[in-house]
Design a protein that fits this description.
It is globular and about 55 Å long. The protein has one domain: 3-Layer(aba) Sandwich (Rossmann fold), CATH 3.40.50. The chain is about 35% helix and about 15% strand. The protein has about 280 residues and is α/β, with parallel strands linked by helices. The two termini are about 30 Å apart. α2 packs parallel to α10.
């Protein structure tokens, strides 16, 4: 496993709490070994990840038409954006093409919506894009078939009962599991009720490592609920593509570079933070 060290990640980040002092530190990653049990879970799906990278390679001409730079005000995606890394955009496109879902439901919308709409349009999919977000970072309403402009925690969990095998539920929300927060509602009320075969993506996940530099200061903790679910209920999930881990593994990273690291995409760093899984 390749290792990268960020000096800031080695710092301790102290938070002032009324009753108990808390210091955020890195236990896994940033030069320290990744979480062993989570690594073993991810290792077991290596062939699946290679298969998706092969599918991404087949889409290289399509990806080559996406510009490197662009404007956030545009409806079109571009690679060098600040919110959705290249490997995430490629994995999302490949997943949409492979599964042709009837529904793509986003909890948190923006650049990912632009990649999804482009895929639906250019690949001839019949997928309906449904956005749940009280205030999207980009103006994307015109890209969606349905918009719900309120927080997830104010939505009826039964809304997700319509999702069928092959449909995609895409989570990129506050990343914070507090009492009554969107992340808490997602993991305790929505994820357990999803039908087998529904595909789930959780963004900004760095498992089997801890969060990277800037995120430590933001009190993000979502990925630890995901980690707990994987460790205690591995029979409920099939890991399809852990983008961060793929980008850190030398063999898989080399395959990613071979798939898209040429032509107009030469020099594009194939890393991401999307964690894809399928309900069992």
């Amino acid at each position: 496993m390749a290792t990268l060290s960020f000096a800031a990640e080695r710092d301790a980040h102290r938070f002032e709490l009324a009753d108990y002092p808390y210091v955020a530190t890195v236990r896994h990653g940033a030069g320290r070994p990744p979480h062993a049990a989570l690594t073993a879970i991810l290792e077991a799906g290596r062939a699946r990840y290679a298969g998706l990278l092969a599918a991404i390679g087949e889409l290289a001409p399509y990806f080559g038409e996406v510009p490197m730079g662009g404007r956030y005000e545009s409806d079109d995606p571009f690679w060098l954006n600040a919110w959705f890394p290249a490997l995430d955009g490629m994995a999302l496109t490949a997943m949409l093409k492979a599964h042709a879902p009837a529904r793509f439901v986003e909890i948190g919308s923006g650049v990912s919506t632009k990649f999804a709409r482009r895929a639906v349009r250019h690949l001839g999919l019949r997928t309906r894009l449904i956005s749940i977000d009280p205030q999207p970072r980009n103006q994307i309403d015109r890209l969606c078939d349905q918009v719900i402009r309120k927080p997830l925690e104010q939505c009826d969990p039964a809304l997700f009962d319509v999702l069928q095998p092959g449909d995609i539920l895409f989570l990129d929300s506050s990343h914070r599991a507090f009492q009554g927060s969107d992340v808490t509602v997602f993991f305790t009320e929505i994820l357990p009720r999803l039908k087998p075969g529904v595909i789930v993506q959780v963004h900004d996940v760095y498992l089997p490592e801890d969060y990277i530099s800037g995120h430590l200061r933001q009190l993000w903790n979502e990925q630890y609920l995901l980690a707990t679910a994987l460790l205690f209920g591995p029979d409920r999930f099939e890991v399809l593509f852990p983008a961060w881990w793929v980008g850190r593994d030398p063999d898989l990273r080399a395959q990613a570079r071979a798939a898209v690291g040429h032509g107009p995409l030469a020099g594009l760093d194939p890393y991401g933070a999307s964690f894809w899984l399928r309900m069992r």
